[in-house]
Amino acid sequence: MPSALKADGITVQFGGVVAVDNVSLDVQQGTILGLIGPNGAGKTTLFNALTGFVPLKAGRIALHGQDVTHLAPHARVRAGMGRTFQTERPFEELTLLENVLVAAFLREPKRRHAEQLAMQVLEQVGLADRHDQPALDLNLARRRRLELAKALAVQPRVLFLDEMMAGLNPPALKEMIGFVRELAAQDLTIVMVEHIMEAIIELSDHVIVMANGHVITEGLPREVIEDPRVITAYLGED
Amino acid sequence: MNRHYLILSGLVVLGILYPQAFPGYLSVAITLLLFAGWATAWDILGGWAGQVSLGHASFVGLGGYFVAVGASQYGIAPWWAVAMALVAAAVLAYLWGRLTFKLTGPYFTLSTIAIAEILRLVAINEGWLTGGATGVFIMSLPEPFGLDLFARQTNYYLALAFAALTVLTVIAMSRNKFGYQLRAVREDEDSAMASGINPTTVKLKAFMLSGALTALGGGIYAIFLSFLEPHVIFYLLLSVQIALTAIIGGRGTIWGPCVGALLVVGSGEVFRTTFAEANMLIYGLLIMLVVMFLPRGIVGEPARYLIRRAYAKRAQS
């Protein structure tokens, strides 16, 4: 299988603190990589480094063989990365369709075509029937789906999901897991930072566990969560 | 078809008829139209892109000086002078944006004040070109098709065309890719980048467009005044007035700046004649009332209310 995302020796430093220390990963096309670890482990920082929102101290990043290490975040999106944000902030006064339209314009500069693409994506996440509603006061589950729609509308090849499942009630969680699984089935490559173990176990093909900026272990989800080092990282030592 | 185009066409027709109905009130109408156009142009950057400038007098001055100096010193026809001013304004906006868009919030705004001030000092000190502190007179202008450019009626129609052009630009922009990019950048630059938008490029484009349109109005203003003084045209007060007109009317709305111009220029005129010295007091009070009770502006606040109400209705059904 071809490598969709390859990162070597990623190091991020904030002042004197090394937030991510020499982390490497290689994600195969159409697979899901789960990124877990206790709070402060450096997951989100690594995530932001991969998507270009945080500068690297060292390391290289390649997207489908293209070196994107020195590209700005918006240029990486153009090159094929899509991402969601942990705290989603839709444009409240715009309708759902217009919210997605902003992203859809990246690949379809003509309004009519961009609108078609945006509608298609809204259908994919089950928000099509609300397309002309303002994004104001959308509930959490729908805000998440809108955030996902915005990320999909740039037609990414590698999709980065930042804690999409946090705070969702069981039915909404199940639904979101369904969406993500469907996307992977369509050959999209996914990297997700997640705290909800249920989602990690159900979805990930491969899991990387981080603590204190390092990778402490990686492997299949079931193996990883039973690893004593992981349990220690989460719960601390006796 | 978009209803805004219809409203604009209706207003333009009314505008064309206005000199027949009120031939004695052309000057105040010209001022109103120029402010409507400037505030609308300002709003492309200040409202739609969310970058508040308090230096737009620079562009007014640039447009004005190109026309005035061109006519008085070099015999350049005003339309060529305006064309050059548009390019100069776009270049100024580009360089200025390149330097300052790394600054956010109040720092960008402060830098804009500085630039208008620099241009004012240049206009005062480079007397060989600009006439220095005494200013520059436009003695004569060519007469295209026998049209007297100094005539109030001609000034009026130029101002009307300018205001209509800026509003037309914003209506078109509000529905296209660029308009959505501007809104995205204003709301959240990170989120805009995640949609593949380069915030700096988008802000630069907005600044260049806003500056060039403002300079166009500046050129018409110079013909209207036929006399330019650096203290007046590059003055901070003019920049503040342009910004306030848009803010009072409603930033980031299509009609807000025009409504703001009606209120600010119209009431300014009424208050000046009725209340004489007290007019600034009332002007200040008006601004306070809008800021306190209608923070999104006179057009922005009801627009938001309508959106909320439409949402509430849908939520009930």
Keywords, separated by commas or semicolons:
heterodimer, A: 238 residues, alpha/beta, Rossmann fold, 2 domains, six-stranded mixed beta sheet, 10 strands, B: 317 residues, two-stranded antiparallel ribbon, 15 helices
Topology:
The complex is a heterodimer of chains A (238) and B (317).
Chain A: E1 3-14, E2 17-28, E3 32-36, H1 43-51, E4 58-63, E5 66-67, H2 73-79, E6 81-83, H3 96-104, H4 111-124, H5 140-153, E7 158-162, H6 170-185, E8 189-193, H7 197-203, E9 206-211, E10 214-219, H8 221-226, H9 228-235
Parallel strand pairs in A: 3-8, 3-9, 6-7, 7-8
Antiparallel strand pairs in A: 1-2, 1-4, 4-5, 9-10
Helix pairs in contact in A: 3-4, 3-5, 4-5
Chain B: H1 3-21, H2 26-48, H3 57-74, H4 78-100, H5 106-125, H6 127-130, E1 136-137, H7 152-175, H8 177-187, H9 189-194, H10 199-225, E2 227-228, H11 230-233, H12 236-249, H13 256-275, H14 279-293, H15 297-316
Antiparallel strand pairs in B: 1-2
Helix pairs in contact in B: 1-7, 2-7, 2-10, 2-12, 2-13, 3-4, 3-5, 3-10, 4-10, 7-8, 7-10, 8-10, 12-13, 12-15, 13-14
Short description, anyone?
The complex is a heterodimer of chains A (238) and B (317). Chain A folds into two domains: 1-80 and 156-238, P-loop containing nucleotide triphosphate hydrolases (Rossmann fold, 3-Layer(aba) Sandwich), CATH 3.40.50; 88-155.
Describe this structure in words.
The complex is a heterodimer of chains A (238) and B (317). Chain A is an alpha/beta fold and 238 residues long. Chain A contains nine helices and ten strands. Chain A has helices at residues 43-51, 73-79, 96-104, 111-124, 140-153, 170-185, 197-203, 221-226, 228-235; strands spanning 3-14, 17-28, 32-36, 58-63, 66-67, 81-83, 158-162, 189-193, 206-211, 214-219. Chain A starts with a strand and ends with a helix. Chain B has 317 residues and is mostly helical. Chain B has one domain. Chain B is built from 15 helices and two strands. In chain B, helix 3 runs antiparallel to helix 4 (78-100). In chain B, 47% of the residues are buried. Chain B: It is found in: Cell inner membrane. Chain B: It comes from Modicisalibacter luteus. Chain B: InterPro entries: ABC_transp_permease, LivM-like. Chain B: The chain crosses the membrane at residues 5-22, 52-71, 77-97, 118-142, 154-173, 206-226, 232-249, 281-299. Chain B: This is Branched-chain amino acid ABC transporter permease.
